Amino acid sequence: MTSQLDTIHARIGIGGVVADNRLQSVHLEPYPQLCAHGVVRIAVWVLMADIIGGWEAERSSGTDWTFTTDLSVRAPVLRVPARVEGTSVALRIGKGHVAAEAFMHDESGELFAYSQVGFIRMPRRPNDPPKPDMASSAKNWGQREQLGSLLAEAAGAQVIDPVIGHVEVVLDDALRNPAGAMQGAMVALVGELASEELATHHLGRQHVVTDIDVRYLAMGRVGPIYSRAAFIGPPALGSIRVELRDRGNNDRLMSAMLARVAPAPEPS
């Protein structure tokens, strides 16, 4: 079994700053394997928002699991920043639901990306694996071996049919979270690829995803995981809807997403 230290999302390289046993911020210096077509993949910012927003949920959850229910990211700036730092603020802390917002600032202090994220609390089952200590884990973030291949390749994503945004991944351990389900940023990555492939094919030039809204409807546990995507309105407007399903679990609907695409920046 793959250690959580060796999962794809762990090796993206997001580091954490811990003080007073509290995760204060996260940071990342993007490197080529996280980028595609002149931008950092939006799934990377999904992961950053999930981590820093998830801290707000974790510190109020006791021994319960916290699972992401919905996550939105806006990343309209079409360039690769030298460094991004993420912080979060709780919007609501309830008995069963937590909402937070995440701010991702670049090296100049400008707001580079923004996220809103929601979480639900669920009791641990008797046979569940141990719940990780985020504060302790954060001290080792950023010290893991970074990805040696492009993020989509490392995840094993295969484009089956760009006409319908059909992308597939085999659900191996490197894509799972500590609870054994497909990790949220990896779910978003498949949706990002589906949107990108659909738009690039139909619009005749390379596109990238700038906005994504992910609703996590069910845990992906079996696989393969596959996507379907379609335009909302005229393709030139760049609005797309995506579904992800778990073929090995009776085609269960895992996630519904909305995405917006834009033409990729011209190479400098």
From TrEMBL:
InterPro entries: HotDog_dom_sf (IPR029069)
SUPFAM superfamilies named among the record's database cross-references: Thioesterase/thiol ester dehydrase-isomerase
Protein name: Unannotated protein
